[in-house]
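Much of what follows relies on a compact textual record of a protein's fold. With that in mind, consider the following protein and its fold in token form.
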Amino acid sequence: MTALNDLPRSKRLKALTHEIHDRLDKSIMEASSFDTLEGYSRFAGVQWTFHRDIDALYDDASLRDLLPGLAERRRVALIASDLSDLGLTLPPVDQPAVFATGQAVDVPTALGWLYVAEGSNLGAALLRKEAAKLGLSDTHGAKHLAPAGGGPAAHWRAFTTALDAASLTEAEEDRAIAGANAAFARVQALANAALG
């Protein structure tokens, strides 16, 4: 059996966030998020709020150096466009974004948050099929679920290759793990509030 510390960072993050990730997936599906347009709209609102929280990361020079093509991975504008397609305004927010533009970023923590965001891109392939049943598409209402060029698997591999190559100390590894868990917890809190 391979020791956890011998795994690439992306695999360690997957193993160490499995429980909270699984709980989040179940709560989204149990909320019937893809049974009606109303349910989907609530789901898209959760997505927008989470991506608003991390949007500043896509402009961070240190993260861009570590993760080539990072700027092209941002999705907040696509989700806003999807909400507009559905005749909705952006969800109200009662607190500032987790990562604010112009503030210093702790790179390891940010890597954990981006791991969660990029992982949701991989899962979007399944959600995209469910959205299509509601009459939504890559050009109307479900743009943020559309696959990146080359497909979701290739997009994910490029991200995890860069993530795994980043040089982190043991303390920084711990902060990356804490960041991923915090990101999942944030999405879970948003889902509880919007979908419950």
User: Anything to note?
Assistant: The chain has one domain: 9-25+34-195. The mean pLDDT is 91.
